What we know:
Order of helices and strands: HEEEEEEHHEEEEEEEEEEE
CATH architecture: Beta Barrel
Number of strands: 17
Amino acid sequence: MRQLPLSRLALPAMSGVILALPQTALAQDPTFTFYGQLNFGIFSVDDGTQSETFVTDNDNSNTRIGAIWESGLANGGKLKFHFETALGLFGSSSVTIDDTDLDFNYRRTELRKFEVVYTTPSVGTFSFGQGSTATDGFAEADFSGTSVIAYSALGDLAGNIAFRPQGGAATAVTVGDAFSNFDGARRFRVRYDTPEFNGFTVSASAGEEVLRRGDDREFYDLGLKYAQDYGDIKVDARLGYSWIDSDEELAIGSVALLHEPSGLNAAISTGRQQEGDADYIYAKLGYIQNWFSVGSTALSLDIYEGNDFAIAGSESSSVGLGVVQRLDKQNVEIYATYRTLSFEGGATAVEDIDVMVVGARWKF
């Protein structure tokens, strides 16, 4: 892929096209929206030898703020500027068994979105700047209502906790090393999304990592999404393929189904490293009911099985339970989860890691 420096050619060209849109093209007064969320939990982690309980930011959906400026255009399209950033809190994917402090350390990698988006009436949507690549979220189709605490990216819950043999020192293998869903991410990119056609949307992006010092990798992503309702059944299916520089290729996909009258739902996610042996499958069953007048209650059970992560021939497995109670008036979700994570394949057998969390997310 390096022989086609698409990102370096396309990004400046795209920025010129979008930023050249004249102010006279605005067809209505712009709107400005400020939003954010707080998401903290009480975490209890046991690595088989040592256990710790602490309060931290929940990196499944971390604390953040954002702002959107948007206006309709005379041609029927829309122009949007979108800014979003995390707050720099030392969260659940970063804590270790020996360092659980809720520290504040804002770095430029906290920037989630800094982009301009131009939507046309019939051609599609063009995005430029820091934002989601074409495969971001493509391993994460999910109707369960519990993704705030349980979804296919298991490393967000306790990614820096290391496996260790009983009574021994921590190994070099962490939860983040042993579990991955190969999902896309946010990069400095140019992206194009086709209009929706019979439920199908195609996305493509090309970009670079610009927020991490010393990391100048290029990313190319293609995604196909299908979203449709069949009577009482909602369907969300996603397929993605990523090229990272010239030495890594990833294939991912996920499907989610929801039977709205009963609240029963299911999701499956899978992915494979094309120039390597790592692969995984993740499956989830969920149930949503309105048992209480304050809001819906969502329950889920999920399993994860992975191969060849961190060490050739290794096996990674996990089982998780999640419950989320919505408080609609307050725009709050109260949640709890239990997850056990296992890893086999090293020279020395290691203990399972157990994680329990109780917390809440408030969106404003």
